[in-house]
Structure formats: C-alpha cells, structure tokens
Queue: 2 jobs
Job 1
Amino acid sequence: MKNNIEKVRISVCEAGIRLSAEGLVARTWGNISIRIDERTMAVTPSGIMYGDIRPEHIAVMDIITGRWECAVKPSGERKLHAAIYRARPEAGAVIHTHQLNASVCAAARVNVEVNDRDAARILCTGKIFCGGYGLPGTGKLTTETVKAVNGSMCALMANHGAVCLGSDIDEAFTVSRILENVCGTFIAGKFSIVTGTGDLSDKNVCSQYLQTHLKR
Amino acid sequence: MIKEDILSMIYDDVGPAIRSGSMSGKDRFWIRDGNMVWMAGVDSSLLSVNVNDIVSAGMDAAAGSDDKLIRLAVSILGKNPRINTLLLNRSTYSETVSLTGETLKPYVDDIAQIIGIDIKNLPVDETVKISGLFRSRSAVTIAGEGILCAGTSMDDAVAVAIIAGKAAFIHIQGSYIGPLSFIGRIESAFMRFIYRRKYSKQAAKAGRK
C-alpha cells in the first residue's frame, strides 16, 4: 500500500476541490486525508481555501506518534483522522464534511436508520450513529467519533457534521453522497409523519413550518 | 470601484451560491466605497443583474432614502468600519425564519465560527439595536425580509450568507426530527475568536503575497 507521497499529496489537493465543488463543505471547513502506507497519512492544512491548497501544503503525518512534517500546520482534526486509520487498517481515505442533511441530523443528535438495503451494504451498517459532542480538535470529539464509526463507513458528529471513510478517496466520496441521501430520506420520513404530506420541496417544508408556527 | 467590478463579484461569488440554493436571485446587496454605497435596484434579480441595474449614492443621501432597508444598511456601514459589504439572504428558508420572529442558534460549529453566538430576529426599524448586534455577529434576521449578512468583502459576505442559509435550513428541517441541540454561548464565542484569529492571519499572509 506504499503510495508515492507526492502523488498522494496531489490527490488530496484534488479531493479538496471536489469536496467544495460537491457542496460538502464551504470555505475552509471540513478536511481530507489519504493513507500513504500503514504508518503515515497525508492531510489537508488548517485555514486555507481548498482552491488555494497546493501539494506542499499537505502534511505527512505519522498515524501512531502524531508527528507531522510540513511548512503549514495540518487540520485541527488530524488526530481524528489518525485515530480512524489506527482503528480501521483497511481505511485508505477519510473525509470530514459539513454536508446539509447530515448536519440537520447531527444538530438533532439522532441515530439514523438505514432502510435501503444497497445503502446499508455500502455503509456497512443498518444504523448511522451520532457521536457525542466535543469541541473541535479535542480528544473527546475523536473518541466519540471513532466509537460512533465502529465497524461502519461513516458517523455523524454532534453539532459538527459527518465523517466518512473508504478504501480510497472515491469510495469515501460515494459514502458521503449515500449518507446525505439516507439522512434526507430520514428527515423526509419524519416530515411526512408530522405533516401528513410527502412533498419535501423547500416551498412546502417552509409553508408547513410557517403554518405550524403561526398556530402556536 | 466601477460597476464592472461589482458585476464580476456578483457573477463569481454570489452566482454559485444562488445556483446551489443557499441564496436567492431576490437577494440584495450594499457595498461601501469611501463615502458612497453601491447597490442594485429593488426589482433587480442578482441572477440577471447588469450594469444598468447598479446604482451608487452618497452615504448621507442614502440615509434619507424612502427604502427602510437602504437606511438600515447605511446605518450599519456607518457604525461598523470593518463591514464593507452587506447581503440580504432571501432564500426560502431565510425568509420563512424572518417571518416567525425566532432566533437561530449555532446548531453546528461553522455557524458559531462565522456568524457568532446567535442570529437574532428584529424589525427593520430597530436600526440602533441591529447596528449594535453587528459588532459581535455577522448576521441578523430582519423581520419579514430575510437574513442580513455582513463581511469585509463580497467573498466574506457570501460565506456568511451561505452559513446563515444553512442555519435557517437546519432550524426548519430539524424541527421535524426532534429537538435541536446547539453550541453554548461561551463555546460559540470561543470558537468564533479562534476562527477569526486564524482567518485574519491567513488573510494577512495572502495580502503579503
């Protein structure tokens, strides 16, 4: 699994642009890592817009010791990435996203049932768990998120967003798209139960909300 | 500043946010330019705005406008020197929240970092209170109008508008799946402090290049 470091750095840069283009994050939020070998990973920097990240900004970090090399400080969530690689030797890439539907579920701190069989197969779980709250970059957030991921391919992070992993970066992106669909379906189901309508268009959701609010 | 600069900011920064649904063609903007303020006509769509739609006025003259939103914008720009651009986010979710009178909370960390400890909801004529809120926050909901978002530049204001739209989305969609939790005031303030320090360092580095 020994990848060429420079090639991996370029892949991380490209994935950053993709993360932003697919609407999974805005500005500098979220972060990406790709495993280089059993012991090291390449991770995005802290506080640089994805469009401005160059290969020399991508830190190479020891997954065990946490030591890193780069002129630019790596993401504050680097320890989370390292912990996931330690817990999941088969993981080749990890992305932390702020995607919309997953953020709704993460703000409600709910565990989300996966009712679609294909989605459950890809996510390796019938239920997406939401990890407990912790401040960004803290050991508590890392511990809670790794626990919530467990043997699956993703988890919600309370009041943060989501983390997705894959054997490679393409699979991690696929997982994030499926996670978004599953969370969207979960919200639609609850909306339908509460309102009796299955129309989840923005206009109808807002109209139903306003009606309920004005009745209060 | 010339009209073409403003148009390119709208096409490059605002356009993608409108197409992604985070903002709306009905949104409005105000840009400080010395003692002048640039804006588009009330009926202009930001998706099809052209040079003829963009107008400027002296700050003093604009302060006497019949349009309450223009008066509010000028007041905010006058009292907050770090703010150069204001955007009124009128996405479906932002407008809906503006009609309920509710305060939005930092449901996720990016809301705390880029906007602040909350997004309060006030009537447009509460000019003094609203201007004061912008000292510690980057967005305030204007009752019945949408969410007013501030930035040092158009790029900054668009980022605030995207996150404000996300806050409104989470607030409404989340109401159907259970009670929403949010980040406490002290942690929110701490996160915003750290974020602004990091972001200002980055902006300073970019400026030196």
Note: The first helix of chain A runs from residue 5 to 21.
Job 2
Amino acid sequence: MNYTINGHDYKMGYYLADGIYPSWATLMKSISLPMGNKRKYFDRAQEAAQKDVERTFGVLQSRFAIVRQPARIWDTETLALIMRACVIMHNMIVEDEIDLDPNERFDYGGENVQPSHGIPTCTLAEFIEAQKKIRNKEIHFQLKEDLIEHLWNQHPDLYPMEPAS
Amino acid sequence: MRRNLFIRIMNTVEGHDDYFVKKRNAAGVLGLSCFQKITAALRMLTYGVPVDATDEYVRIGESTALESLRRFVVAVVEIFETEYLRHPNEADTAHLLALNEKRGFPRMLGSIDCMHWAWKNCPVESKGQYKGHVNKPTVILEAVASHDLWIWHAFFGCLGLIMISTSFTGLHYLQT
C-alpha cells in the first residue's frame, strides 16, 4: 500500500516517538530546537499527537495501582503475566466505557493485515534487507520534511499555537 | 471497571479455571467462593495493596490470595488475549489510518513509548541487567497506543530486548 506526501512516495507506515528513539524510517520524532514557524508548528502537532501514549500510561497506572508502585513479585514470568493482564483489562475497560458507533470497531473486522513485502522473512539476506528499510535514515528525514510541509499546507489551523511570549 | 464488566470477567474466568469454582473439601467444608478469590486478586491489582491486607475485606488467607492472583492473571491472558491484545486487523488499520489522517499525520499508526515499572524484589544477581538510566532495577513496558487509549502492541522486558522486539513489529506490521 503506497501513499504520497508532498509529492514523495512512501511504502511503510510509522509511529510517533519521543526523543530517545533512533531516526528510523518507521519512527517520527519531534524536533528538539525548532527553527521557523513551519517547524514549530510541526513540533507542536507531533507532540500533541504523541501525547496519546503518555495519557494511556497515566490511565493504566491509575487503573492498576500495582503498576505504579515497586513490584514485590520475585520472578519475571509472573511480572510479565500481571502486566499483560493489566493491559488486556485496560483495553476491556476502554471498550466498555467508550461511546462508540457499534459498527465502527471492536468486532472481528476481517483477517489480520498481511504485510506486502515478501514477509515473513525466511532467509538471513531478506531479514537484513528488511531491517535496512526500517532503519533507513534518509527516508526518515525526507518523511519529516514532507510532513512539515504537509501539516503547514493542508492543516494550518488544526493545532493552535501559543502566542509568542 | 464497571460492575457488568467485572461480572463478565468473573464468570468467564470461573468457567476457564476449575480453581475458582466453589468446592467442598474432603471433610465436607465449603471452600472460598469465586467472588472472594477474584475480588482479592483484583484488589491487589487495582489498589496495589499487600497480599495480607486483602483478608480484612474478603476473609481470604495470604497464600490463597497470592495463588488466586497468579491463576487469575494466567486465566485473563489465556482467555482474552486473542481479542483484546490482538494484532490490528484490516478494519482496525483502516480506522486508525482514517483517524490519524484527520489529525494531520497520513499513514501514522500510533504513538510508541516506554514506561518503567520499578522492581523492588529484583534478584541481586540480575540487578545490573534491569538497570538503565534509572538507578534502580526496573522492568519496561513498551506500548503502541492510539487516540482512544487502546493499547495495540505491548512488549515487556528489560532494556536490550525492547528495541529488538520493536524492530520485529516494524517488520511485521509497518510494511503493510
């Protein structure tokens, strides 16, 4: 599935991440010292959207206090099971409490998505090739520039900027 | 958690694991009910109370409470993982893409970050393994979440493993 941003073609999706993540083609970070209004606007938009995961952790911790305080369990297997169970029950609560159009989601909506690039990787060479694509730095920076332009041109009023102090 | 959701989880877990069914022992004395065991487990999860503090409310022994916590999390993972921690299917992906397109990020599939969970009782011999930029041993949950707070992928472990698993998900999902 290809898509075009600002005249360039891209083949992979991406996640929003914060500053400690590497510059991969599949991760989009904010700019630490944005210069100019376009970049400041992108920065604001990226942080506004990336905040979702921070909110999720906050809600998870307030729902399951065991995750907030130091764990008293002795082995990693039980810790992992507790964390998985908490995440699963968190999702169940999200589904239970959200006001959602009933035909929008949360049913089995077809098969799992099938990746399109000859995945699963069988040989070592294929694996390395796929890793290269994911970790491609040039694509990362090109995608960032294109997203900056895209946000500035297509969605100029989506995220209000604070007045300069 | 609403009451009807609690009841639903309780009934499903009771049907899944025989341990939670209320039984008589050889002397004919009734054991603890499913309500007691699951309430004890959930109180530990949601309020973070110590194990021996649960008996004041639900009249359950310390070792039984621990046992039911362990069995409860295993049952929840076994029963509900296929639905509530599934990989996004086609409808999910389409929904996510449409939502994020509207927010100004075309082809964006979610936000990723890590959360540290301090581990007080980490065994001494593996303490170094679980330390990172935080000076105490922590285990890390790395998750991908969307706007409605749904968690799509969750990895759990120590530092080095996380980035590896991230790039694996990248392989299997981002290239759709």
Note: Residues 3-73+113-154 of chain A form one domain.
